[in-house]
Amino acid sequence: MIRRVLSVILLISFLVILPYSNLANAEGDGNIDHGGGGMGSGSSQNFWNSHDEGVRVSIIRDSDKSPVASPVDFTNRTPPSNILHFGKISKMQYASGTRLSPNTGVYNYVHPQKKLPYIIKTNRGQTSIEEIKSYFTDELVVRYIAQAGSVDYDTLTNGNYKLLLEPIAYITFQGTKMAMTAHEAALYDQVLSGGLRSKMTSLTHQNLPLAMFLETPDLGFPSWNGSTSGRVSNDQILSSLGLGIVRFKEAPTTPPPVKTHVEYRTNTDVITSVLLSTSKQINPKAPANVTFSMMGSSLTVTNIVIPEGDSQLVWVKWQTPSTPQTVMIQISSTDGQLSENVIQAAIVDLDQNLPPDPKATDRNSTFKLPTVPSYSGKTSASWGVWSASWHQYLVWIPDWEWVENSKGKGRWRDRGYWEDQGWWDYRRTSYTASLSANQTVTPDSKSPTRSTNQMKSGYGIEMNSTTTLSSNSPSSHITGAQHALSYFPEFSYQKYWRLHDAKSAGYNASFWLKPNEYSTYNSRVHFTPIWFPDNSYTPITRIIDAWTPAGMLTLQLQRTIMISGNLFSDWHIAPQNPK
Q1: What is the mean pLDDT of residues 161-168?
Q2: Could you count the other beta carbons within 10 Å of the beta carbon of residue 103?
Q3: Residue 563 and residue 456: Cα distance in Å, rounded?
Q4: Neighbours of 542 (CB within 10 A)
Q5: pTM confidence score
Q6: How far is CA 11 from the centre of its chain?
């Protein structure tokens, strides 16, 4: 039996495998951490029973952070088939813009033949890191996961794939049995404006999310350096908690870098954000300020207030330089803890990979129509801003004294005063943004035999895209889409691209191709190759740089036009007149 090095970058989990004896142990080391605390007590309508839990396992391709199979839920329990759930959606998919959607269909799960170790910390049962490590460093366990996900074991463990693990809790909320991951619980609580947290906080905002978190950043998720025993916020859960990652290569022995790396385009309005967390109250009497320093200047966000044990995204909106370069952004705060204090921004120029000049003599007899790629997109985002107002609560503070009159008689007199023993009421204003777009791909207006959806190879195509950025936020929170790039099938959607010009800017930006330098008329077209076969021709366009505090919104557009014949059939050579 071939041994493979398995390094567990996560925290906690799960599963098992086929019946076995003489199991082979892999030689990797487990890099695992977790936390939790006391559970408190529930009610007849809102409760969770110890060990009503499971783990959702997703196989993720590392190169593009995409799931390659439907996630599988493993559990020792037998949840009712009609339990309310949110489908088989991973934290990676939610982070890419998938929205929370209740599902009343049958809930499918897998019973491991060897019981899972305890996952969620309770008053009656503790989790064992050593036991969990023994599962995730065993070859047969990984073989079972590969089988459950219908992925070849050698493919899964070749270093190009990772396992994403998420703890699941089976709870009763408002009298309804529900299944949810930590990420789903945070999204659901946002929908209910804190209604879930108010009833189930010890589970949904403490022990469930703290059951798993990363020791080192991976798959675009940060490590967790906060408290491992207190309450956590929705933002903290969505960003950093309730997940573990298994990867099939040596775990790094060096500490994670202090920097975060991002990529921006030249001459682009962008939003750079960090997460500010606090274990104590930050109120209007002593608000926090966060300063972003870059390129010799500073931008400061002032008057930030956050309730105890919560967090908020803090950001600045700025324009990138006109030339490619690296910009170091230093971030500091007067209070609370920042998710990062250094961001290294690579400013890149997109307009550098134009296709070569198409020739009438070009040939490509070995060409095969490529599969149209599907780039990961993010079409919606949500975030929030805290505010606080004083809640007055007057309390009389007595100060009794004995007062005598001239006749030697006296009485008690209260010289007390009113004292305001009020508190700060915090309110979170929620914002959302969504990006949508449409596109037309039509033959060049100068094509002599053009129609709306068919053309001859060798002629050009025109591409026009319209976008809409919808949001309930102020303009300081968002930007409209600012760039569009198109890739083409004759280059297998690689190597070359065309950058579009903005026909109109703003939240309803529209784009069309830049003028083609090889066009006699300087037309805004892309010329199809003369050798392209009679078949569907499908260019793709990526709409990018619609920025929010919660990241960039982006999507892919594609339209197909049919190629039939080539431009040579439109040429006529007349015989020479005899003398």
Answers
A1: 92
A2: 14
A3: 5
A4: 17
A5: 0.59
A6: 20
